[in-house]
Write a structure and sequence with these properties.
mainly alpha, 2 domains, elongated
């Protein structure tokens, strides 16, 4: 019942193999480094030519970015903004006229000038400015030169055609954008109405913002004020309950994860056999229940009669539920077959369950012998976060380095922007807004940059797998000991393995990570193409079905490659061979010992899932109980709601537990493949098995557990 294979005559030694390690798949490492150099160059070009503010703040009506001297972007015509937000045409937020000011203007004027105006730049490119005024003088005059305009331009300005616009609403600077709030200023509106009447113009909706200011204020409240206020309360809750977050969101999950590892170490057998027993009892119970409801056992069969049950036995009464009873009977037969097969399969697997339990125990023993290894994955996670931050910054700069060009939008009569142009027939002075346009070269740069992110994150994961596999392989082939590897905290087994794997097998990591990254990249491209087809209205039922099938197949293929890679890295850590050879060897060992691998995976995955769920649930429960104490329900430390803090503790508890359990999972897989390789090398009798695993195997020697089910061909017998 062991992981058996044909015996190799060549003497094999893990120590000798380590000394004879050679660098593997060097060409892929060179390719990865060359790619990363190109990625750095692309990033430098992005940082040199991009301006992220263009994405966040946009441009003014001349296509220029707001500068440090004039940082506040102001929309002089609120009605235009409102119309654009309500319209269904392509005229949108980017097309609304805006200008850059030093500060957001106020509608509150003086006794002499009760109405404030914001006018075009004095050097406005459309020629409708004040040529004899500088920008500095314009700002010093509070952006107002309305009194210097001709009579016609004053009339245009009163009708929201510029070059000056009345300030009727209060604004506040939010992320360097002047946002409308509050109510319309009555004094300013009265003054504007007086000017309109004096010029023979009847005030209309476009002159009076009272009917739309509520909509504008509501929009601002929904988008900014509401979420901001709620977030502010949650931030305050975190500031009050930071101790709970620290204790129950970090310390408790770490402690609980170690406790669960202890449970795995000492109670794996109990859990394993309990799972097997409950599965079989459940199958038998369902079968008996179906027979009862079908009327074969007892008299509790289903019936359609809702009245006196005695009438159901009367002469000439036909129960319409008899068809249902017949269906249940067939289901009972099928359930009987399933339960019988499950019982037979269980009896066959019982011998392998003992091996599976021992493998899991050895894996947890390997971790407890060098507990520092459990924290090793934190290092590549931090590196990934740092790289992700750089990647995001470079991507934003690259995306913002496009050429600023005029947008294309509807130019239909009665719709903006013609509605707010002094001369709607003048195309040069009546145009849409500006946007950053990506040229073909920039698009290719972004795709290159995206693939670099995918490849690097997978490369870091591959190095992590190789390091952990090397640690646990050292423990197994050391007979259940790290030997001299526990020399100190500076030179731990994890650090030793990391140095060894990165020096010899970074090329293999680059190879395996490239395969996964390529599939991820293809999936993203396909998803983007599907999204574009939906936008173009070409997503008919055939396209949807085909896209779904293609995306699922790519996802499934990616999972297969990831599974192969994981086991390949283990074989690389054990034998130090190339990626392709190790992949073939890993697949061969797994399929030749498929039943043992299945038993370990079923039991291991179940216990690890229970561990993650239990740690997260207990952390959340303890956080809730802690927040329910008087400390956090009354007084200065009172929190408005425990919900967000509890969710935080549950999520972080699950993340920390997953980090621990991923290490345990790698330990289990490495121990299993090491055991199978040990059996194959030594003719079915493992030579390096740790004492804990050897003690289980010793009990089964009389049953000849190491002879393959296919004889000398080396199939599963564990």
């Amino acid at each position: 019942m062991g992981c058996c294979g044909p015996k190799d005559d060549t003497p094999w030694s893990y120590e000798k193999m380590n000394k004879n390690r050679k660098c593997t798949d060097i060409l892929f490492l060179i390719a990865y480094f060359a790619f990363m150099i190109g990625m750095v160059v692309v990033g430098i070009l992005g940082f040199a030519n991009g301006d992220p503010a263009a994405l966040l703040f946009g441009t003014d009506y001349e296509g220029e970015m707001c500068s440090e001297d004039y940082p506040a972007r102001y929309f002089p015509n609120p009605y235009e903004l409102y119309t654009a937000s309500q319209a269904t045409h392509t005229y949108g937020f980017k097309d609304v006229k805006s200008m850059c000011l030093k500060d957001c203007p106020s509608p509150v004027g003086t006794d002499a000038e009760p109405l404030n105006w914001v006018c075009n730049y004095p050097d406005s490119s459309d020629g409708r400015g004040m040529a004899d005024m500088t920008r500095a003088q314009w700002a010093a005059a509070n952006y107002d030169y309305y009194d210097s305009l001709s009579a016609q331009l004053k009339t245009d300005s009163m009708n929201n055609l510029g070059p000056c616009y009345p300030v009727l609403l209060h604004t506040v600077n939010t992320y360097e954008t002047c946002t409308f709030f509050g109510e319309q200023d009555s004094d300013a509106q009265s003054e504007l109405n007086s000017l309109l009447i004096a010029n023979g113009v009847v005030p209309t909706l476009e002159h009076n913002l009272g009917s739309i200011v509520e909509a504008l204020s509501s929009f601002v409240s929904d988008q900014i004020a509401g979420p901001a206020a709620v977030m502010q309360r949650y931030i305050d809750d975190f500031s009050q309950g930071w101790v709970v977050c620290l204790v129950m969101g970090f310390l408790a999950p770490v402690l609980l994860s170690f406790v669960w590892m202890g449970v795995l170490r000492y109670f794996t057998g109990v859990f394993a056999y309990l799972i097997i027993l409950m599965t079989n009892v459940g199958a038998i119970g369902v079968t008996l229940y179906l027979y009862i409801k079908a009327g074969v056992i007892g008299s509790d069969e289903i019936t359609a009669y809702a009245g006196d049950s005695a009438a159901a036995t009367a002469e000439n009464y036909v129960d319409p539920s008899e068809d249902n009873q017949e269906v249940l009977l067939y289901c009972a037969y099928a359930s009987t077959v399933f339960a019988a097969l499950l019982l037979v399969f269980t009896l066959i697997m019982l011998k392998r369950v003992a091996i599976a339990v021992a493998v899991i125990k050895v894996a947890t023993q390997a971790i407890t012998a060098a507990p520092s290894v459990i924290f090793f994955p934190i290092a590549p996670v931090l590196v990934a976060f740092g790289f992700g931050a750089y990647w995001l910054a470079a991507a934003v700069y690259m995306y913002s380095s496009g050429e600023v060009e005029l947008r294309e939008c509807d130019m239909v009569d009665g719709l903006p922007p013609k509605k707010y142009c002094a001369d709607p027939t003048d195309a040069d002075n009546c145009h849409c807004g500006y946007e950053s346009v990506l040229d073909e070269n920039l698009q290719y740069m972004l795709l290159y940059h995206l693939f670099g992110l995918l490849w690097t994150t997978q490369f870091l994961q591959a190095i992590t797998y190789l390091t952990l596999a090397s640690v646990f392989a050292t423990f197994y082939f050391g007979g259940g000991s790290y030997g001299n590897s526990l020399a100190g905290w500076i030179n731990t087994p994890a650090i030793q393995s990391f140095r060894k794997m990165t020096w010899f097998h970074s090329g293999s990591a680059a190879f395996g990570s490239f395969l996964v990254a390529l599939l991820q990249f293809i999936r993203i491209i396909v998803a983007y193409m599907v999204h574009q087809m939906k936008k173009a209205g070409k997503d008919n039922i055939f396209v949807k079905y085909a896209a779904c099938v293609v995306q699922y197949c790519l996802w499934y293929l990616q999972k297969i490659i990831e599974w192969i890679n994981r086991n390949t890295y283990i074989m690389i850590a054990i034998e130090g061979k190339s990626f392709c050879w190790s992949a073939w060897e890993a697949i061969s060992l797994i399929f030749n010992n498929i039943l043992t691998v299945g038993a370990v995976n079923i039991i291991g995955d179940t216990l690890l899932f229970l561990g993650k769920f239990s740690v997260a649930a207990v952390a959340g429960l303890l956080a809730f109980l802690m927040l329910d104490s008087d400390t956090y329900t009354t007084g200065e430390s009172k929190v408005s709601s425990p919900l967000l803090i509890v969710i935080f503790c549950v999520l972080f508890g699950f993340i920390i537990a997953s980090l621990f359990m991923s290490t345990v999972e790698m330990a289990i897989d490495t121990t299993l493949l090491s055991f199978c390789k040990d059996c194959k090398i030594h003719g079915g009798k493992p030579k390096f098995a740790p004492p804990l695993l050897e003690s289980v195997l010793g009990k089964a020697k009389s049953k000849n557990p190491f002879r393959g089910e296919k004889g000398a061909e080396g199939s599963d017998s564990a």
